[in-house]
């Protein structure tokens, strides 16, 4: 009998498997596809590989701004696709090797909860039960669609399909301007595609601070993206030559539609019916201190968990929390209040903690401080001054949240992660000195202003 059997080899599942080695636990990991999950195979890693290609192309295209004369670049889509796949293969191979080194048995098949363990269905239809003292559900998520836009992998696609386009689409409509939709809009526009971005809510990256959304909105429009917010679309009209996307009294003609309206938990058929596991719209409710479900000995981590962000790094932390409880009986809860969110567009957006509206809704009396990057030396050098920093603090109290929009935001947000997580006062954080010239000086300037002692 195994100490732990994990269903799903994505970030939550493989993190749990790797962390269990610290306690000498006997672990089996059941995966119907390839270890790595959405993040490694069809999400974070391949998407960021494409985004980096777009960034390089954009940089070379604008080299003349910096006094560098270069031939007009062109995109070798096939080479970029191959490089993306090589990055994925390298990381998947490294992960498989690490799991083997940690003595984790990987079982290829579909896992389903049964009494006493997990039933595995293999490709040939045969089954076997792996007995376990504890089970971790980490089955991840799948792309959602909307009525009138059923995925066909050709004219109507998900992000899974788009990451493997064999050639660059000339005209694309993207439905949904969350992180995934905006990232694809940014990279495709940077590489010369005609992009139409639709969002039903009133801003891109809904839920993000409106100041950051405005920075990104301006940047996308500057790239040539036709951004339409507060707009719904009618059913797609597919023809041999493309897709007609109606909205209001108008419509656009494109070659392909990318639907990016979020992800649904992949919990169908894994044996939750008739168990004490509480499920809501496919999401699993857990005790956030332990990740334990209502079924004794059964835990859930990652994208299947109800009410938590669908982020790979959240899944890592949840896997650690579950294994800690299994191995020691003690808790190591995830600090959701300080988990950073990054949108890897150009420019990037990073956020942590509460937005201004969330803080007010929670009953805080708040103080808000903002600082633009127009006067930041390094941002001027990089010709990228459209960014902003926003801090939200309790009146006469600690930092509650922060947002950075601009160059390097995905890296810079982590210093504010510590400040928010440790409930630092703005004056305490402002006492630390940033190197000059750096873009992160914008954070230092904002902290000084939040302390009532602005410099510039």
Going by CATH, the architecture of the largest domain would be 3-Layer(bba) Sandwich
Approximate shape: globular
The low-confidence parts are: none
Radius of gyration: 23 Å
**Portion in beta strands:** 15-25%
Helix tally equals 13
Could you estimate the helical fraction of the residues in percent?
A: 25-40%
Number of strands: 24
Give the full name of the CATH homologous superfamily of the largest domain. Answer: FAD/NAD(P)-binding domain
In total, the number of domains comes to 3
Q: Whole-Å distance between the termini?
A: 65 Å
Description:
- It is a single chain.
- With 456 residues, the chain is α/β, with parallel strands linked by helices.
- It folds into three domains: 2-142 and 264-336, FAD/NAD(P)-binding domain; 156-261, FAD/NAD(P)-binding domain (3-Layer(bba) Sandwich), CATH 3.50.50.60; 347-450, Enolase-like, domain 1 (2-Layer Sandwich).
- The protein has helices at residues 11-19, 37-42, 44-61, 77-101, 159-162, 179-190, 210-222, 312-328, 356-361, 377-381, 409-421, 426-430, 441-450; strands at 2-7, 27-31, 105-108, 110-114, 117-121, 127-137, 141-143, 156-157, 171-175, 194-199, 226-229, 237-238, 243-247, 250-254, 256-259, 263-265, 279-280, 283-284, 298-300, 341-343, 348-353, 366-372, 388-394, 399-406.
- Strands 1, 2, 3, 4, 5, 6 and 19 form a seven-stranded mixed sheet that branches. The chain has a five-stranded parallel sheet with strand order 8-15-9-10-11. It has a five-stranded antiparallel sheet with strand order 20-21-24-23-22, with helices on both faces.
- The mean pLDDT is 97.
């Amino acid at each position: 009998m195994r100490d732990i059997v994990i269903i799903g080899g994505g970030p939550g599942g493989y993190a749990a498997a790797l962390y269990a080695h610290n306690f000498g636990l006997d672990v089996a990991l059941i995966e119907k596809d390839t270890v790595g999950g959405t993040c490694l195979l069809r999400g974070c890693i391949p998407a960021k590989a494409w985004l980096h290609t777009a960034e390089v192309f954009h940089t070379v295209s604008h080299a003349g701004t910096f006094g560098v004369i270069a031939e007009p670049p062109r995109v070798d889509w096939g080479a970029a696709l191959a490089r993306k796949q090589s990055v994925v293969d390298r990381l998947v191979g490294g992960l498989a090797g690490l799991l083997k080194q940690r003595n984790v048995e990987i079982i290829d098949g579909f896992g389903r909860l049964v009494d006493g363990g997990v039933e595995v269905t293999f490709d040939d239809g045969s089954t076997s039960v792996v007995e376990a003292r504890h089970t971790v559900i980490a089955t991840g998520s799948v792309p959602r669609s909307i009525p009138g836009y059923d995925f066909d992998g050709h004219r109507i696609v998900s992000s899974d399909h788009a990451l493997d386009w064999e050639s660059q689409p000339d005209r694309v409509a993207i439905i949904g301007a969350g992180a995934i939709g905006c990232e694809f809009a940014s990279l495709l526009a940077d590489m010369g595609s005609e992009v139409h971005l639709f969002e039903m809510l009133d801003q891109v990256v809904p839920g993000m601070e409106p100041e950051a959304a405005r920075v990104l909105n301006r940047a996308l429009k500057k790239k040539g993206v036709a951004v339409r917010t507060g707009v719904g679309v009618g059913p797609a009209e597919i023809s041999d030559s493309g897709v007609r996307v109606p909205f209001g009294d108008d419509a656009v003609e494109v070659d392909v539609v990318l639907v990016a309206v979020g992800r649904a938990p992949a919990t169908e058929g894994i044996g939750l019916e008739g168990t004490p596991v509480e499920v809501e719209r496919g999401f699993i409710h857990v005790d956030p201190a332990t990740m334990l479900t209502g079924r004794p000995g059964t835990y859930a981590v990652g994208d299947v968990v109800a009410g938590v962000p669908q982020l790979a790094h959240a899944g890592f932390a949840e896997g650690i929390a579950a294994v800690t409880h299994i191995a020691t009986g003690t808790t190591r809860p995830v600090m959701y209040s300080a988990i950073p969110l990054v949108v890897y567009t150009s420019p990037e957006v990073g956020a942590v903690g509460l937005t201004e509206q969330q803080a007010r809704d929670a009953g805080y009396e708040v103080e808000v401080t903002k600082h633009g990057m127009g006067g930041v030396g390094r941002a001027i050098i990089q010709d990228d001054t459209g960014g902003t920093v926003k801090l939200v603090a309790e009146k006469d109290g600690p930092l509650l949240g922060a947002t950075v929009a601009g160059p390097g935001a995905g890296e810079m947000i982590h210093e504010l992660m510590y400040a928010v997580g440790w409930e630092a006062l703005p004056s305490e954080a402002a006492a630390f000195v940033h190197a000059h010239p750096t873009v992160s000086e914008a954070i230092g300037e904002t902290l000084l202003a939040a302390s009532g002692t602005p410099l510039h």
